[in-house]
Design brief:
Helix content: 40-55%
CATH topology of the largest domain: Tetrahydropterin Synthase, Chain A
CATH superfamily of the largest domain: Band 7 domain
Structural class: alpha+beta
Number of domains: 5
Order of helices and strands: HHEEEEEEEHHHEEHHEE
Radius of gyration: 49 Å
Distance between the termini: 131 Å
């Protein structure tokens, strides 16, 4: 391992530098003294460099959206390292596992309640539970998606669709079916450390005959709803006209009840007086109905 190799070299080089320093101190020959001093400097710098490399091995950087699982010769630490710079055991292996949202897509043939085979393309959005990452690594490994999630996703999807008719995958029940799929898959994989966020149904391929039948039925239902709307609108219009006619009849009845013979005679007298005082030439015929004269304007 790099840590052990760097540490051993650092110790050897520093020991060599110390030895060269002692020899330089004991040497009485100027040439040897200079060589020992140069060697001590070179060995000292080399030893310090390898010592620095060994110390760096005690640190590790966990990227954002990941956790670090500590594997010390097969023994997995129960606690995961959070994102950032962390102090580590230089002899241990740090396995970095993503806890970000991931997606897998599956295209499969699933059964329906009536025994039909439907082509379905679905996906699952998920992420690794940071607190259970060490257990997932210990019990399943880093390939937990292929080993744990994908098989369960296929199995649960087929089990859920088998309880619904094919038209449910094609109509408004599709959202309910996707939510049920999310709930059922979560029950299976969440205890194992995988959090399911959503399972959208992306594409559906029904048998041709069934697809045409469903489309015809939906068109018939839409036409029926349209006719119900038209009928309701006509009924509302008829009700509006009935109310309007009733209002007019009530108005006429009120007016007719409020007009008496005395009122009409009085209005006739007022009109006669106004005409009589007018400057226009007129012909007055006496003996009209109710004793009122008949006045004819000659203009």
């Amino acid at each position: 391992m790099l840590f052990v190799f760097s540490l051993v070299l650092a110790v050897l080089l520093l020991a060599g530098a110390a030895l060269a320093g002692r020899l330089a101190a004991r040497s009485t020959h100027r040439t040897f003294d200079r060589s020992y001093r140069v060697g001590r400097s070179v060995l000292g710098v080399g030893g310090a460099a390898f010592l620095l490399v060994a110390l760096v091995q005690c640190l590790t950087v966990i990227p954002a959206g990941h956790v670090g699982v500590v594997d010390f010769f097969g023994r997995v630490s129960p606690g995961a390292l959070a994102a950032g710079i962390q102090i580590r055991n230089p002899l241990a292996t740090i396995v970095k596992m993503s806890v970000q949202t991931q997606e897998i897509k599956e295209t499969m043939d699933v059964p329906s309640k009536e025994g039909l085979t439907v082509g379905l393309e679905a996906s699952v959005l998920f992420h690794l539970d940071p607190d259970q990452a060490p257990e997932v690594y210990r019990s399943v490994g880093t390939n937990y998606v292929e080993v744990l999630l994908e098989p369960q996703f296929r199995s649960v999807t087929r089990g859920v669709t088998a309880g619904y008719e094919a038209k449910a995958l094609y109509t408004s029940e599709r959202g309910h079916l996707a939510q049920l799929l999310t709930d059922e898959l979560s029950k299976v994989v969440s205890p194992r450390g995988v959090i399911v966020e959503n399972t959208p149904l992306r594409q559906l391929k029904l048998p041709v005959n069934l697809s045409e039948s469903i489309e015809q039925k939906l068109q018939a239902e839409q036409e029926s709803q349209r006719m119900e709307f038209v009928l309701q609108r006509e009924q509302q219009e008829a009700e509006r006209k009935r109310i309007e006619a009733q209002g007019i009849a009530d108005f006429q009845r009120t007016v007719s009840e409020g007009i008496s013979d005395q009122l009409l005679r009085w209005k006739g007298i007022e009109a006669t007086l106004e005409i009589a005082t007018s400057q226009n030439a007129k012909v007055i015929i006496a003996g009209g109905q109710d004793g009122l004269p008949i006045i004819l304007d000659t203009h």
